[in-house]
Amino acid sequence: MNLPVPHLNRMTHLCRLRRLAGTLALVAMTAATSLAGSGAAASTVIVPATPAPDFTLRTSDGRALRLHEQRGQVVMVNFWATWCGPCRQEMPHLNRLYGRYKDAGFLLLGVNVDEDARVGAQMAARMGLNFPVLHDAGKAVSRRWDLNAMPGTVLIDRDGTVRHLHRGYREGMEVTYEQQIRALVKE
Amino acid sequence: MASGAAQAMPLPEDKAELIYHVYDGGGVQATGPALLVRKSLADRVSLSAQYYVDAVSNASIDVVTTASPFRETRTAWDLGADIVVRDSTLTLGLNRSREPDYHADTLSLDVAHEVFGGMTTLNLGFSRARDRVGRHSRGVADLSSGGFFDQAIRWQYRAGATQILSPRWLASANFEAISDTGYLGSPYRAARVFGAAVPERNPRTRSSRAVKLRTLGEVAAGTSLRADYRYFWDTWDVRAHTVELAVARQFGPALLADVSVRSYSQGKALFYSDNAQVETAFVSRNRQLSSFKTLGLGAKLSWTVPGLPPRYGVKLTGAVELKRFRFADFTDLRTGQPYRYDAKVLQVFVSSTY
Amino acid sequence: MRRAIATFSLLAASLLLGACSSIEPWVKPYERERLADPILQWQRHALADKHREHIHAVREGARGATGVQGGGCGCN
C-alpha cells in the first residue's frame, strides 16, 4: 500500500467543513452588519417640515416648469425611470390619483431620469399618463434632492413645505398616498 | 410626518420558459424538454417549478468497450420559493432527480442580503443531498424491494459577494465547499490494473473547494463583456481551472446576441490510472477524474417578439455550443490513442414574462 | 495553526469593513439604468444555464461555485 490516504477520516473532514461553514457565516454576518450601517441614508435635503428646494425642468413638449410657481397647489413630485420595475407598477395608481384630485388643487409631477428623454416620453405616452412628465436626464435635480431611492416620492403642501417622503414602492402604498393627498388638499 | 422607506429587494419576475435541449458527443445523445414556471404571490413570495427530462442514448466509450449501448430517461423536478424580507431574499429549493438506477434528492437554502446602499449583495447558501445508487442487471434496473445497494450524502456550503463597481461594471466572488460521503463511484465502470479489468475502488469521502471570480461590464454602447475564472481543488487531488469569456451585444430593440469561449483544464485524481502498474488502496479509470482539457465555443441569439403588450415579453432564443474534449491519460481502447471527442450542444427555447 | 490564522484574518478583514462605514455608496439608485439592462445580468436564461452546468457537472471533475442556482443532479 504505497498510496497515502489523506482526509479519509469521515469525522475529521465533516467537522472541518462545518467549522468552515460557521466561520463563513460569522464573517458574512459581521460584514453585513458593519456595511449595513453605511449608505442608503435618508436625504439631508428633503426633510419633512422644511421648504422644498426649487427646480426648473422641461416637460415632454418642451415647456419649462418651475416648482416654486406651483405654490397654492398640493404638489407630489415622483422620480421614476422606464428601467425601474416598481416605478412602472406605481404609475397606474399615480395616474388614477391625479385624475381624482386634480380639480381639488393637486398637481403630480413625474420626473423621469432616463438618460434618453425620448424613451421616457414614449413610455409615458404608452401608459397614458395625464400628468406633466418632466425630464431630468442630466440628473441635476436627482442629485440635489438626493432621495437615495427609486422611485422617490415627495409630497409638498400648498406653502411649498415638504410634508411626506416615500422611498421605493410596495403594493399598498397607493392607499397611504391617497390618505395623505386627501389630508393635504383639505388644508 | 411619515418618512416611509420601502427599500426591499425586487422579487424575481413572473415568467414561463420552455426549452428543448440536445447534447451529442462522445457517443452519448441526451435530449429532452424542460419547463419553468414562476409566479409571485402577494408581492412577497415568488414560487417556481421546473420539470426537466433527459432521454439518454448512451453508447459512450465506457459503455461500448465494456457493455452494450442502452437508452434511459431521467426526469427531474425542482420546486423553489423566494421570500423577500426587507433587504434579504430567502430562497428554498427542492430538487428530485429520478432515473431507473439513480435517485437524487436535494434540499437547499440560500440567503441574499443587500447592503451598502444596494451596491453590495452578500450570498450564503447551504444544500444537503442524498443520492441512492442502484444497478441495472441485463438492462433492467435492479431496484426490487427498494434495491438500491448504496447511497451518498452530500453537503454544500456557499458564500459569495457581488459588488457594483460603477454604473457600468460589476464584480463577484464566490466560494463553495462540497463534501460527499458514501458510494461515490459507478457500479458499471471498471478500472484497469496490470491490463486487466477490475471493479473500481473509490474512497468513500470527498471534500472539495471552488473559488470563482467574475466581472461583467459595458465596454461600448450596447455591448458587454464578462470574464470568469474558477479554481477547484479537492481531497482527491483533482485541480481544475475554468476560464470563460463572453461578449453580449444588443442589435436594435429586438435582437440580443452572445458569443462565449470556455476553457477547462483538469489534473488527474491521486488514485486515477489509465492502466495501474501497482496495487493501491483506491484505483479508478473514470475519465472524469483524468487529466484533460476542454474548449467550448458558444453562440446565442435571442429575438423579442414585437407588437405585444409590454407586460408579455416573449422571447425566442437559440443557442449552440461546440465543445472539444482532449484527454491526456485516458486511452481509447479501440484505437490505442489518447481519447478525444467533440460534442455539440443545442438549445432552443421560448420565454415569456406575464 | 493555518486554520487559526485564516479564521483570524477573515474576522479582521470583516471588522475593517466596519471602518469603511464612512464611505458613501458611489452609485446612486437613479444611476442604475445600465445595470438594469439585460446585457449586464449575470444570468439571463435560468433553464438554459442550468442545462449547461449539468453538462459540465456530468463530464468534468470540478464542481461548485458555478453561479447557477439549483440542486445538483446526481447522475452516474
Overall description:
The complex is a heterotrimer of chains A (187), B (354) and C (76). Chain A folds into two domains: 8-37; 56-186, Glutaredoxin. Chain A has helices at 10-36, 85-101, 117-127, 140-145, 173-186; strands at 56-59, 64-66, 74-80, 106-112, 133-135, 152-156, 162-167. Chain A has 187 residues and is α/β, with parallel strands linked by helices. Chain A has five helices and seven strands; from the N terminus they run αβββαβαβαββα. The radius of gyration of chain A is 24 Å and the shape is elongated. Chain B has one domain: Porin. Chain B contains one helix and 21 strands. Chain B has one helix at 61-66; strands spanning 3-5, 15-25, 28-41, 45-58, 70-85, 88-99, 102-115, 120-133, 136-137, 140-141, 150-166, 169-182, 190-193, 196-199, 205-220, 223-234, 239-251, 255-267, 292-304, 314-331, 338-353. The two termini of chain B are 37 Å apart. Chain C has two helices and no strands. Chain C has helices at residues 2-19, 46-59. The two termini of chain C are 38 Å apart. The mean pLDDT of chain C is 79. Classes of the chains: A alpha/beta (187), B mainly beta (354), C mainly alpha (76). Strand 7 (162-167) of chain A pairs parallel with strand 1 of chain B, so a sheet runs across the interface.
